[in-house]
Design a protein that fits this description.
The chain has six helices and five strands. With about 200 residues, it is an alpha+beta fold. It has a five-stranded antiparallel sheet. The longest helix has 24 residues, at about 105-125.
Amino acid sequence: MSTTRPYSPGDRGPEPSGASGASEGGVPGTGDAGRGASAAETSGEGAVPSLRPEQQAAAAAAASAARQVRRLDFEGQSGVVPLARDFARQALYAWGWLPAATADQRAAAEDVLLVVSELVTNACLHAEGPDEMWIACDNKVIRIEVSDKGNGQPAPRTPHRAGRPGGHGMFIVQRLCLDWGVVRQPGVAGKTVWAELGAPA
């Protein structure tokens, strides 16, 4: 687990520029340097030395086109937790995670919805509510990001005591996700909490 690394392996790459509930892939970034470049582009990882630069660019474009991204703006919205769950559920249907054909696929989709609920609830309880949520999917990983204007640092309560009320949100996120973390932009108030879950078999 990382709570400081902004992007983990399997970074979703470019993001759409406008607020949209429609699935988008391969759309130019918004100008945000952190969101506009994939892990391979920023670190040099994932490039195959035997490919010419134009072949590497074509391979990167193909990988980017396979990603699907949706954005939900919470401005002026009420009931943000059920709104976020419904939005995520619609994305899961559009991306073929639902309806689930097996118990494992159903459990994977329920895990995504639970993590969405926990991240949005955490923003409500500790950061005056979420600003926006991004959900992105490729054939291996689904990534959820929730942005807010809070300055706190989310962390699982340690030691975790299952019998006590409250304090379970980030523990649940840590247990269900491949990885999660927090991104902060220098000079900008707030943060983005991200989490990644594996696609069902």
